[in-house]
Design a protein that fits this description.
- Helices cover 40% and strands 15% of the residues.
- The chain has 161 residues and is an alpha+beta fold.
- The radius of gyration is 15 Å and the shape is globular.
Length: 161
């Protein structure tokens, strides 16, 4: 069974979803009413996600909750690569593809970004087009611009010591 939380953020309402194993969804917009879930573990993962988002939006280093990322092996590799991009930095789709040993796979990386089930915490917003153009984003380009500006303003504080 899963639990759902609506989180009010500076970029609008976010919907967080979790199971006993961890957070498996974070999307933009209201995806239905909050539902605490049937288990203390699922509720705990929602609480951990809310704390991570509170910290992120306050400019403090967030402690990520357990994540349950469902996708193809390639998608999972891309999402792991996104987690390695430092706060306040960006990479191009081509740079991420090259780092994964998939030179020429920028479109495939873009497709994996599009399917990222846990927005913001798995930072697909840190991936941009060649020459720094923002490209698309599930929350909208203005939200992507806001997130990148927020991270740039708080980048030194958000980087792990």
């Amino acid at each position: 069974m899963s639990a759902r939380l609506r989180y009010r953020s500076p970029v609008g309402v976010l919907t967080v979803e979790a199971s006993d194993e961890g957070v498996f969804g974070l999307s933009f917009g209201d995806r239905g009413p909050s539902h605490p879930g049937p288990s203390a573990r699922a509720r705990g993962h929602l609480d951990a996600a809310a704390r991570a988002l509170d910290d992120y939006f306050a400019g403090r280093p967030p402690s990520l909750p357990p994540l349950v990322l469902q996708g193809s092996p390639f998608q999972k590799r891309v999402w792991e690569a996104l987690l390695a991009i430092p706060w306040g930095d960006t990479r191009t789709y081509g740079e991420v593809a090259e780092a994964l040993g998939a030179a020429g796979g920028a479109r495939a990386v873009g497709g994996a970004n599009h399917e990222n089930p846990v927005a913001i915490l798995v930072p697909c917003h840190r991936v941009v087009q060649a020459r720094g153009r923002l490209g698309g984003y599930g929350g909208g380009v203005e939200v992507k611009r806001w997130l990148l500006a927020h991270e740039a303003a708080h980048g030194p504080a958000l980087r792990p010591a």
